[in-house]
Amino acid sequence: MHTRLAEELGLEFPIFAFTHCRDVAAAVSKAGGLGVLGVAGHSARTLKMELDWIENEIGDKPYGVDLLLPAKFAGSDRGGFDAAQMDERIPEEHRRFLDHLLEEHGVPSLPPDTKLAEEISVGYEKQRDVIELVFQHPISLIASALGPPPPWMVEMGREHGVKVAALAGTVEHARRHVEAGVDIVVAQGYEAGGHTGTVSTMVLVPEVVDAVSPTPVLAAGGIGNGRQLTAALALGAQGVWTGSVWLTTEEAETHPVVKEKFLKASSSDTVRSRSLTGKP
């Protein structure tokens, strides 16, 4: 199954796998797709270790990274908050609510040795060091999950031969991304996990394809099997951008209890939220 974009990136399959787990990213790249590591929870120091590990695993196979570049966010006027500052801002009643929620649904506490994000890298300035670092590695793609990429990031992509992508929930967003100079638009419908818009994937993808042609479009949101991949290509997309489907794989770091709940859940069990699963 080939598309022009897949051929340009050296992929066997037009499947892009967003994940926060390096093992998943490496496994997908080795299998012929393109693993995309989410890097918002990394400092430049920890990210270098992750990228070095991935490259050692995949050899000359392609991979990419994904980051958050919203124009506005809490604390943006002060350069953002680090993980400790964000933790200090959580009201005690919110902590009690969370403890009750976890107990009610049988979700165990994280083990003491669980690796947590040491830094929340959001926004242009917070991400500058990270972006400069990733361009020192042989990435094939860099994606902005929130907001158009800044001009200097697009220019760095050109200089290093790295394709720049951006996620869009509306046609207007897609057009802004193209005006900013992106090489790929990811049209993400509201079926997707994480931060989404309000337009369904089936409606959004052909709208975006028509609006930004000849810029290639990836379809995202509710895609978890080959039939949905085929449907996305029929809508004009040159591949699919997937995320939630990888949370239950053998390589995923998802807690076993949570993984089991994912596998038992149906499409009617999903909810939209502004918590960690949504917009920061």
How would you describe this protein?
- The chain has 280 residues and is α/β, with parallel strands linked by helices.
- The chain has one domain (4-80, 117-269): TIM Barrel (Alpha-Beta Barrel), CATH 3.20.20.70.
- The chain contains eleven helices and eight strands.
- The chain has an eight-stranded parallel β-barrel with strand order 1-2-3-4-5-6-7-8, surrounded by five helices.
- The longest helix is centred in the first third of the chain and has 15 residues, at 44-58.
- The protein starts with a helix and ends in a 16-residue tail after the last helix.
- The model has no long low-confidence stretch (mean pLDDT 89).
- Class from secondary-structure proportions: alpha/beta
Distance between the termini: 36 Å
CATH superfamily: Aldolase class I
Nearest-integer average pLDDT: 89
- Main sheet attributes: strand count, strand direction, barrel closure: 8 strands, parallel, barrel
Q: Total helix count?
A: 11
* CATH fold-level assignment: TIM Barrel
Low-confidence parts, pLDDT < 50 over ≥5 residues?
A: none
Radius of gyration from the CA trace?
Answer: 18 Å
Per CATH, the class reads Alpha Beta
**SSE succession:** HEHEHEHHHEHEHEHEHEH
What is the name of the CATH architecture? Alpha-Beta Barrel
Number of folding domains? 1
How are the elements arranged and paired?
Blueprint: H1 4-9, E1 15-19, H2 22-30, E2 34-38, H3 44-58, E3 63-67, H4 83-88, H5 92-104, H6 124-134, E4 141-144, H7 151-160, E5 163-168, H8 171-180, E6 184-188, H9 201-212, E7 217-220, H10 226-234, E8 240-242, H11 256-264
Parallel strand pairs: 1-2, 1-8, 2-3, 3-4, 4-5, 5-6, 6-7, 7-8
Helix pairs in contact: 2-3, 3-6, 8-9
